[in-house]
């Protein structure tokens, strides 16, 4: 199910970017291009598998599988009225799994035995690790506010109204964590010839990007659960769709950021800000 949702999210992205740029987007394959995700999947997965002689072949093919598995596994935490399992320490699981995503990127870049891929992996790893720190510190705010570690919570009052700048910092950090524009330095086409995934084609390329889109949708869901209303499953799904649209609007509205400014934004702005917010929260909670 998540695989199909990610596929159609790519179609939504291409449609939204098309209308932002005053064009139609995919419209030839099926009615309104509705079959485009299926044609893209068939095209990618039936392509010839090219074996790189200089690569570490086992780990080279393992890296996309690892990234895709981690992205699918984290959806185990999706709160639903129809779920039959309850994860008491859901946010702790989210911390652990999200921290492991960087290994898939590093493996993909290092095992390709390509300088472009390795440089892209180093940049992506530095960016991901840096923004994980600010993300986790920001997540402590709703955790301490509701005194809950589970993702299966029902918010009756949106926490984002308590401190509005926090949700803006969270959304910006989510953009950097998921390698989305204007912080898409992991796939810097103009500087790195597509970055860590340059040597991948076909199925491996598809799994890497399906993992990225699955992470975007999960970050949209966790934003709704912890910062907005989540008292109803269908309301939560609609809100998650709206938040995911902001990822697309941001890509269409802003140019790519500079890498040094991106790192300064994390360590010199977001990190002190999130720590100050936690200090203020500790005063009020006590």
TrEMBL record:
Cross-referenced PROSITE patterns: COMPLEX1_ND1_1 (PS00667), COMPLEX1_ND1_2 (PS00668)
Any one of the GO CC terms: mitochondrial inner membrane
Any one GO biological process: aerobic respiration
EC number(s) from the headed UniProt entry: 7.1.1.2
tRNA-binding in keyword set: no
Keywords for the protein's UniProt record, in alphabetical order: Membrane, Mitochondrion, NAD, Transmembrane, Transmembrane helix, Ubiquinone
Membrane topology qualifier: Multi-pass membrane protein
Pfam families in alphabetical order: NADHdh
Origin superkingdom: Eukaryota
Catalytic activity: a ubiquinone + NADH + 5 H(+)(in) = a ubiquinol + NAD(+) + 4 H(+)(out)
Family: Belongs to the complex I subunit 1 family.
Alphabetical list of PANTHER family matching this protein: NADH DEHYDROGENASE SUBUNIT 1, NADH-UBIQUINONE OXIDOREDUCTASE CHAIN 1
Protein's name according to its UniProt entry: NADH-ubiquinone oxidoreductase chain 1
């Amino acid at each position: 199910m998540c695989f199909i949702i990610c596929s159609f999210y790519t179609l939504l992205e291409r449609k939204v970017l098309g209308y932002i740029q005053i064009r139609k987007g995919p419209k030839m394959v099926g009615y309104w291009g509705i079959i485009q995700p299926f044609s893209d999947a068939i095209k990618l997965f039936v392509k010839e598998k090219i074996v790189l002689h200089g690569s570490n072949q086992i780990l080279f093919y393992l890296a996309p599988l690892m990234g895709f598995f981690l992205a699918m596994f984290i959806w185990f935490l999706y709160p639903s009225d129809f779920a039959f399992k309850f994860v008491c320490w859901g946010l702790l699981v989210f911390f652990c799994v999200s921290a492991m995503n960087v290994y898939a990127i590093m493996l993909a870049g290092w095992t390709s035995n390509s300088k472009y891929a390795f440089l892209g992996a180093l940049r992506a790893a530095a960016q991901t690790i840096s923004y994980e720190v600010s993300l986790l510190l920001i997540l402590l705010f709703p955790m301490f506010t509701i005194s809950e570690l589970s993702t299966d919570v029902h918010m009756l009052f949106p926490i984002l109204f308590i401190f509005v700048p926090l949700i803006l910092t969270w959304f910006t950090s989510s953009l950097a964590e998921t390698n989305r524009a204007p912080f898409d330095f992991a796939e810097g086409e103009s500087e790195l010839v597509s970055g860590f995934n340059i040597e991948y084609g076909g199925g491996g390329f598809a799994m890497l990007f399906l993992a990225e889109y699955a992470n975007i949708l999960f970050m949209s869901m966790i934003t709704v659960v912890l910062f907005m209303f989540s008292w109803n499953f269908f309301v939560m799904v609609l809100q998650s769709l709206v938040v995911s649209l902001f990822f697309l609007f941001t890509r269409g509205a802003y140019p790519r950021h500079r890498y040094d400014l991106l790192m300064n934004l994390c360590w010199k702005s977001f990190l002190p800000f999130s720590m100050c917010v936690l200090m203020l929260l500790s005063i009020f909670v006590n």
